[in-house]
Amino acid sequence: MKIALVGSGYVGLVAGACFAELGHDVVLVDNDESKVAALKRGECPIHEKFLPELLERHRGRRLDFTSNLPEAVRRSQLIFIAVGTPPKEDGDADLSYVESVARGIAGAIDSYKVIVEKSTVPVYTNTWIRKVMLLNGAPAELFDVASNPEFLREGAAVADFLYPDRIVVGADSDRAADMVAEAYRPLVDGSYYKKTDAIPGPLAGPFMARLIRTSAKSAELIKHASNAFLAMKISFVNAVSSVCEAVGADVEQVCEGLGSDSRIGRRFLCPGIGYGGSCFPKDLLAFRAVARESGCSFGLLNEVSNVNEEQRNRFLRKVKRALWTLKGKKLAVLGLAFKNGTDDIRESPAMAIVKSLLKEGCSITAYDPAAMAHAAEELSSAVKFAGDPYEAMRGADACLVLTEWEDFAALDLTRVKRLLRYPILLDGRNLFRPAQMEAAGLNYYSVGRPDVVGERRTTPRKPSSTEQIKTPLTDAVNKDRAA
Ligand code: UGA
Fold first, then answer.
1. Nearest protein CA to atom 8 of ligand 1, as residue
2. Which residues, other chains included, contact 135 with Cβ-Cβ below 8 Å and sequence gap of 6+?
3. Residue nearest (by alpha carbon) to ligand 1 atom 5
4. 121 and 87 Cβ atoms separated by less than 8 Å
5. CA 20 to 30 Å from 469, out of 112, 187, 417, 462?
6. Pocket lining: 273 vs ligand 1, CB cutoff 6 Å
7. What's the CA-to-centroid distance between 363 and ligand 1, angstroms?
8. Considering the entire predicted model, what is its pTM?
9. Residue 297 burial (CB < 10 Å; 0-12/13-18/19+)?
10. Which residues are CB-contacts of 407 (< 8 A; sequence separation ≥ 6)?
């Protein structure tokens, strides 16, 4: 099929490269000419596993880049809109980029096309795109509008696209739904997975993607409801972790029991310093605005945000509890990205914590495997950057782990202890086991688990029963973290 992707940000770029991988002729459109030129030169603007390989594999063959929207529209059957929908002051999504793309498509349309919204948008966007197209002269018989939300996670975006839990196609016309479904056929009939050079998936064995057909409005709501539910799961476990701390229970044990109920599930129950990124915070606000405007009260969403905010404050209080005063303290910070596997620092809880600590008068040496260049643009010169985690720790009063990069979990703890001025490690992502830290002689503060402080053993001891728990459920969590 001939496909145009308008907007070559995260979603557009990944979807464009993956559609080319599925055998379609793809043109990626962006009004940022320097970005288009960089893509044409073979640069990959984001840190994403398998994306450079896919761009390299298809560039100049099935994948082209342009700033010329009308030309891209004329040569395509499916036109995906994947431009940004940032939040406005009131939390509502700003759809002005979507509107302007719809106007551009309307002016160029010359044969039947399906316009597919892929950006995360509020319900009724589909209807609005149709209205805007008609108002701008597009003949009604030459187009349909469909919704095909994207569920990919940064850091695992290519694998999420090619091995999806589900593909949602929302359309109010069969013709449009059939055309969008056709674009995904190699995933749904499983033929893609039989290719010898297929991108490897997270699962072993045969795979066939599930495609769900819905109305356009239902598809729009599925995306917002999914992200809100996932954010709620994280806030729920974070609130449980606070209760665990208050009563002296261990949140990892609680989650093992809680997540073993197949109705609840173990994934997305990792406590920490809260969720961040360009999706959950923005989508929660937008979904709340949708509910408000439709006259529905959805106070639960407020609480999800409140718990998330409070989780950062709780961690800061923990730093104060471990170090007493903060002014003049020298801290090593491991992790700045909003999660592992990405260089993205948007709404990163790690960045928020670093900024609060700077205000308290701390000096910080930070290390992140991917996000330091972006972080340097946002942080004052009071933050120094290290070449590796150990360099960040040299002479620091404490070490803070703020992003769940798996490399951090493999640190040599003897070396950590030797490098730190005081043997204090605060783990905002529960990457380590308390007994491991006790054995290493480190004072250890994590989330929802008892602190390890004071008298410590110097020889390793037998792991406690919690640490011996290793089940497929624990593996599922590790998979989330590793993704
Ligand atoms: C999220 C959704 O997971 C995707 O399905 C969705 O497509 C995407 O938003 C989007 O709307 O575009 P993403 O923002 O890439 O994906 O990141 P997640 O892996 O969902 O993590 C979000 C945040 O939650 C991170 O800060 C992460 O550290 C945190 N998190 C995640 C936890 O604190 N605990 C967990 O158990 C899981």
1. 153
2. 106
3. 151
4. no
5. 417
6. no
7. 29
8. 0.91
9. exposed
10. 369, 389
